[in-house]
Amino acid sequence: MPINTPLALQHIFETPPSTFEAGSSTTAKRILDSHNTLGECIIYDDKTNQVLWTDIIGKEFHSLDLSSGSHSVTKLPKMLCAFGLREEGPGHLFCWEDGFQLYDVGNGAALSEMSEGEDVNPHKLPTRLNDGRCCPSGKRFICGGYYGDIEGMYMKVYKVEMSNGSDGDHVKLSHESVVEKIQVTNSICWSPDGKTQYLADSETSTIFKYDYCHEKGELSNKQVFRKLDVGVPDGSCNDADGNVWNAVWRDGVGLSFVQCNNPSGEVIYTVHLPENTSQLTCCCFGGPDLDILFISSAHINLDREKEPHAGCVYAVKLAGVKGRVEKRFGLHVS
Fold it and tell me: Under 8 Å CB-to-CB from 223, ≥6 apart: which residues?
């Protein structure tokens, strides 16, 4: 259902942008009082000019129309942990708490059976799937799990692929693991040439980088990209120059920020969050010129008096940097 127009969206478009220069910083603005419990997987749909995200714990799908300012919320039957845009056909690829499925959120209808493969969440709640993103070819969606804050628990990272069903009229999904042992999957994104995939195991405060095989969707040559000194790496995105923009989760212990890391892993720019918000979850570039950084957040077990706007959406317009169009998942993508 459509609800209130965001507080400061028009202001973001109309005011002069912050200048993106190495070694400097800026502060984002709160644009939407969504108050999500766990806002996540924020991405921009360039075909509809909408910013989309999920409230995992709230079991909600959110959309913010940048043309009209309309914010819509759809209740879901279970937790949606990540999702991807589709190249063809209606709906999205949904990564539920327990598996993958094509789903039409507008009509509340499944468009496919659940993906074939091993049980992606054999331990059940509080473990679940977590961060995911479509790969540069569009042929696969890479998504991993969250260990539920259970000591000694590990999850996996999977590649999801789509093929024609045996009847030729339907598609089917299948998945298999590409990383066998991880605690909290986050920061999935790729370099502009598609050869490097970034992937954080948040519990270790480390973003890793891998060689990515386009032909098979396999990861190899794991290396440390950056180990954070402060906070935990959550969701990330890449800009057109290959910098990695990472939302740093600080969980009530200090003001959060988005750090821009160059391809060598050095922090070259920082976007601060106002209002004591400490649980940043993800970020994406959006808007017609891909020059606005949108940031999602959460409020899990926080003191509302200390962080009254935790769970809201923030944004900042930047000059001198440009994001990349989100890839779409499909059968016939080159």
Answer: 208, 209, 210
